[in-house]
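Colleagues,

Please find the record for the two-part complex below.
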Amino acid sequence: MRSDRSAAAPLGLKIAAAAGLLFLHVPILLIFLYAFTTEEKSYQFPPPGYTLQWLAVAWNRPDVWQALGLSVRVASIATAVALVLGTLCAAAVSQTKFFGRETISLLVILPIALPGIITGIALRSAFSFAEIPFSFWTIVLGHATFCVVVVYNNAVARFRRVSGSLIEASMDLGADGFQTFRYVILPNIGTALLAGGMLAFALSFDEVIVTTFTAGQQQTLPIWMLEELVRPRQRPVTNVVAMLVVLVTLLPILAAYYLTRDGDQVAGAGK
Amino acid sequence: MSAITQTSIMEGRSGTFGRLSDFFWRNPKILLFLMLAPPLLWLGIIYLGSLFALLLQSFFSIDEFSGLINYEFTLATYRQLLIPSNFDIILRTVVMAALVTLAAAVIAFPIAYYAARYAKGKWKALFYLGVMLPLWSSYLVKVYAWKLILAKEGILTWVFARLHLTWLLDAWLSLPIVGGNSLSISYTGTFIVFVYVWLPFMILPVQAALERVPGNLIEASADLGGHPAQTFRHVLFPLALPGIIAGSIFTFSLTLGDYIIPQIIGSSRLFIGQAVYAQQGTAGNIPLAAAFTVVPIVIMGFYLWMAKKQGAFDAL
């Protein structure tokens, strides 16, 4: 028998792997079930009946819309900032060699490697020390800081694959630096940036730990959810919002996957 | 000759962009500086600045009578960490982080191994997405889902009742430390949710490490008479270890710093993250909160140093 032909997996391994994947997915699927339950007061399973009325109730809630609006605005601006900073940093690190390159990679990864509560409390005490009042921009400041790493990871991985001779060829053919960037570099890294931007958006849209320290009285959607989790008041509305959040974060992740699936991994291991 | 030099050394470009482009070409260091300055200023000032300011505060102390911060260098705040009630918090968090890491490694291994060795083509993509989607989907929603599952009237109780195993659940809940009134207010619940939420962070590096193990190595071990258990023990596990350590960096670090999961699903006893939150919020004791945050930083520093020695960073 040829040894490079793969044998079938042992049954035990198959079962363990399938059980592991089920463990990862069933809880998220349950969220969809609970969004349609008729039970208001408890988390009863199986649900006594199913209804669509909570979708309408949630739709008419101004606080949910406000929180959603704030989250989307924060995530958009934080993503834009992270795109600029992350791309600059990735370009510098991958195109040139200089002293302290490793340190820069570490610095970019640090905000996400250290527990979020450290970033949060550090920012909060800095704001109070500098007497900066909480505002929309304090949230953006915190989010952009840890979103840089996602864009950076994606862009660095792609820069590694764009060969230097392509850029030299462009220069040899008479293009100036800006033209090379516009017509050679950008088309090559475009999808990686798009993927990085989407992941950054998902990360910011979902962030709660740092946000609790930098938001003051403002409510982003995750903060709204957190309050419902600590003191449940409108469980059915929370169920619907949870389902909405799953859907909103699902789409960018799938899109990012399809944009980067040839070759590199989506830089998810560094979340 | 002169014709060649005339065409090969071109004149400078005209126009603002042209001149700027030539300037950067001649002075690549200035271009590098301009590219690095914005991200470094941002991260350096906003992030490192705040971090150092926080660490500095841990060397101050709080005046017990006035509640104001006493700006004099002292180690008294660190000494407070060692009083039993605070030290218990640290111990509890570290034990939980270690158990969560262990459990995550055990559950992650079969998934990672199957995905690395047996899954091909479409199945490989499915496994990849199957890990990525839970990794990236909302943290709070995942915690919320477990609140639904672990609730007294929730699905888990129902499943146990259906299997006629309610007595088992009750027996477990009546155990001293791990038990409680219901799963959602016990250490068991906290543990399950931690494992669930951080599991993808373990699977990805383990899979990356296992992808690099050549299949014929396993076959060679079998050909030489190795029982599957022996092959695992002497071939597969040592080769996967850097990946497991790399994954454990995430599971350990994330458990050390989390304050939301034990607050929503767990007994009322505090973890480090909650202690930090309480100290800086209601208690207003920023120096003690800062000293508490130093604990995970120091532990993770040690951990990263050990991991580096084991070569775990190549598996990331």
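Residues 1-5, 264-271 of chain A have pLDDT under 50 and may be disordered.

Comments are welcome before we finalize the supplementary table.
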